[in-house]
Predict the 3D structure of the following.
Amino acid sequence: MSLLEVKNLFLYYATRRGPVKAVDNVSFSLEKGETLALVGESGCGKTSIGISLLRVLPRNVYKYDGSVLFNGTDLMKLNDEQFRREVRWKKIAMVFQGAMNALNPVLKIGFQVAEPLILHEGVEREEAMRRAVDALKSVGLPEITAERYPHELSGGMKQRVVIAMALIMEPELVILDEPTSALDLMTQANIMNLLKKLKWNKNLTYIFVTHDLPLASELADKIAVMYAGKLVELGTA
């Protein structure tokens, strides 16, 4: 049985000029430990697939439909509260594009990484902070990072923090939305090496959203090409 099986997924946004077909009847499957790269031009619906799987939808949704089987369970049949409690961040997590925008500028890094443990699992703050420090170390950041604020970190460090945040609940599937887009080549290479290492060590399954075909071929087992909301090509890397 596949870890993830997406069938006939639709996500349309309502606009003044009519609905925008961001994800238009998309189907694919993913085995455990596999990486699928989603490539295509800007605006073709790559990120929309990610947010539709994690169900962090904007307010202007016009149509959201289809079947998303995760370990045999149809996630589309769960209500919002069940999905929040049982799936989001526990089974499926996402590294959002633009690490600076994903971090709260007035909260220390350690608390931001620990927050899902406190909110979702009721872990005591002290224990959650200890696990957050371990998560930061696992992505190659020193312990002191937990006491820093986002503006005190470089771009590459922020990106590592966002990866640690996604992994803190030990999800099986991680959606990576252009995790290296705003970084210089050296930092890009370091982040890619980190993602590979985490994949092998934790047997992670990735959906990797990118514009960069060389990067996609380096990390991915399968590559899906998107155009205008549709999956136009799917094959091995």
Summary: Strands lie at 4-13, 20-30, 35-39, 61-70, 73-74, 92-95, 173-177, 205-210, 222-227, 230-236. Helices lie at 46-54, 80-86, 99-102, 109-121, 125-138, 155-167, 185-202, 213-219. The chain has a mean pLDDT of 92.
